[in-house]
Design a protein that fits this description.
It contains one helix and twelve strands. With 160 residues, it is mainly beta. Bound molecules: calcium ion.
Length: 160
Amino acid sequence: MRKFSMCLGVFLGIMLLFSLSMAQLTTVVNANQDLPGLDTGIDLTSGDTFTITALGEASFGTGSIQACSTSERTVPDAQRITADGTLCPPKIDPSVVLPSAPVGTLIANIGSSGWFAVGSNFSATVSSSGRLFLLYNDVPGQYGNNSGTYQLTNVVIKQK
Ligand SMILES: [Ca+2]
């Protein structure tokens, strides 16, 4: 019995340590969510590491013709896919929230870090502190005609 109690104690201790050092959630980023983006409720501190994997398809609406089609959808890396499954190169637009990343890229902001590209698979050590926001990269004020979502399949935060 004592051995069992000890094992249980060790197990609970490990679980507590695990829950303190890592936070994990699954959530959805709507493509029609305009600035300031999706508030994940996660506050990060410089030195924390975080990993995000995402999938899904979304559309940035009209005006999307650029040697592709009028009904293409994007994935979190911003690769475009037409209704018949044809792949199109990403679309660059200098007016989007993060101009260095194509339209439809999943992007993030931490505190005052400024927006950066996340895409479908991202892992990094945080160099700024603050709330983690996520956003579909599109032109500010032009989110109303977007549709679809990106699903975050894995978000792991390791606090330093
Ligand atoms: Ca749009």
